[in-house]
């Protein structure tokens, strides 16, 4: 049923995967599919902000995120589940939407937390942005 399950995680927030990972694993096991675990390193948003960081910041951030993602998979994904790491850089929802197509995801699993009303009004939630634009079903897991 689900050959490719895309799980999004925030490496800086355990709540982003603690409840969602078991749901994604259950879907993969039921269909004997592949679990694609993705994290996105956000871009700076503007060249002015980028100028405040060292020139090699992006490369170091991506290298660190890749190692942490692989560590998370090794430590948390059961050994009987085929898991593939994916690393994105940019706007989180845009990178997730690209990964859906690139990896032929049948479903996306992501966590969402109770929104802060001001933040929600100003920028919205990443889960909401993915849900509204995704070409496949999205399972939003409340932690």
Can you walk me through this structure?
This protein is an alpha/beta fold and 143 residues long. The protein has a single domain (4-142), classed as Rossmann fold, CATH 3.40.50.620. Helix content is 46%, strand content 24%. It has seven helices and five strands; from the N terminus they run E-H-H-E-H-H-E-H-E-H-H-E. It has a five-stranded parallel sheet with strand order 3-2-1-4-5, with helices on both faces. Helix 5 (92-102) runs parallel beside helix 7 (126-133). The longest helix is centred in the middle third of the chain and has 20 residues, at 57-76. It is globular, with a radius of gyration of 15 Å.
Topology of this protein?
Blueprint: E1 4-8, H1 15-18, H2 20-31, E2 34-42, H3 47-50, H4 57-76, E3 82-90, H5 92-102, E4 107-112, H6 117-123, H7 126-133, E5 137-142
Parallel strand pairs: 1-2, 1-4, 2-3, 4-5
Helix pairs in contact: 5-7
């Amino acid at each position: 049923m689900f050959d490719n399950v895309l799980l999004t995680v925030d490496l800086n927030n355990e709540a982003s995967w603690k409840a969602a990972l078991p749901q994604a694993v259950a879907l993969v096991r039921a269909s004997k599919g592949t679990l694609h675990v993705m994290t996105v390193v956000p871009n700076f948003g503007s060249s002015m902000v980028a100028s405040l960081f060292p020139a090699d910041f992006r490369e170091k951030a991506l290298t660190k995120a890749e190692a942490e993602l692989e560590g998370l998979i090794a430590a948390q994904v059961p050994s009987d589940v085929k898991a593939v790491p994916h690393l994105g850089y940019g706007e989180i929802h845009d990178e997730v939407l690209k990964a859906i197509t690139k990896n032929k995801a049948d479903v996306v699993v992501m966590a969402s937390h109770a929104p802060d009303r001001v933040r929600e009004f100003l920028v919205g939630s990443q889960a909401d942005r993915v849900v509204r634009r995704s070409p496949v079903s999205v399972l939003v897991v409340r932690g």
